[in-house]
Amino acid sequence: MQIKTLFLGMGLILAGFNLSAQNKVNEHLATAKSQYAAKNLEDTRFALQQALTEVDIMIGKLILEKMPAQWSDMKAIIDKDEHVGSSQGFAGVYVFRNYESSAEPKKTAEITLINDSPLLAGVNAFLSMPMAVALSGRKTIKVDGYKGMLERVENAQPTEYNINFPFGQSLLSFRFQGIDDENTIIKLVDEIPVGEIIKLAN
């Protein structure tokens, strides 16, 4: 991709963000342009990487805004929110939100979105093989037009369910503990704007 095309593409992306967020990215883009003009390609690449990281941070914040603060009888633990997660060694968008109920028995839920998840290949393989669906005891569900894999973790105490939606090179994952009914799990996921979150991440 030519550098000018990349600058143009970044400019189009920025149009969807607030002014403060745009300013941070524009600073890195200005540095990249000046370094490119001076033929300092290594510094150009570094500045562009910084700009892309800022964009990922902004996308992560927008995705968190799509997740409810109160989810059924579970409350979001806002101070545990994460986005981008470069310290965890992941590139691109990384988002995490945790939920807990206050009443006993306690219920918990997690929503995670991650690029290049190690689970991605396995989930895609499962969803593309109808025979595997029939034999594994797992299920395929669809929310907002996106297929996902529902799995009950064997012998887990408390009861644990996982639902994974693959898209592109990313995975949107839900993990529930302390909820025994599968239909309740599916209804909870239906309350989340899965399609909107995936579109933002893309």
Descriptive tags:
Protein Transport Mog1p, Chain A, alpha+beta, 202 residues, 9 strands, 44% helix, nine-stranded antiparallel sheet, 7 helices, 25% strand
Oligomeric organization of the protein chains: single chain
Distance between the termini: 19 Å
Secondary-structure-based class equals: alpha+beta
Shape: elongated
Strand coverage percent = 25-35%
Helical content, roughly? 40-55%
Integer count of domains: 2
Our count of helices gives 7
Mean pLDDT: 84
Q: What is the radius of gyration computed over CA atoms, rounded to a whole number of angstroms?
A: 20 Å
**Low-pLDDT ranges:** 85-90
Q: Helix-strand pattern, N to C?
A: HHHEEEEEHHEEEEHH
Describe the structure.
By secondary structure, this protein is an alpha+beta fold. The protein has two domains: 3-63, no CATH class; 68-201, Protein Transport Mog1p, Chain A, CATH 3.40.1000. It has seven helices and nine strands, in the order H-H-H-E-E-E-E-E-H-H-E-E-E-E-H-H. Strands 1, 2, 3, 4, 5, 6, 7, 8 and 9 form a nine-stranded antiparallel beta sheet that branches. A hairpin with a 2-residue loop joins strand 1 and strand 2 (74-76). It is elongated. The two termini are 19 Å apart. Mean pLDDT is 84; it is low at 85-90.
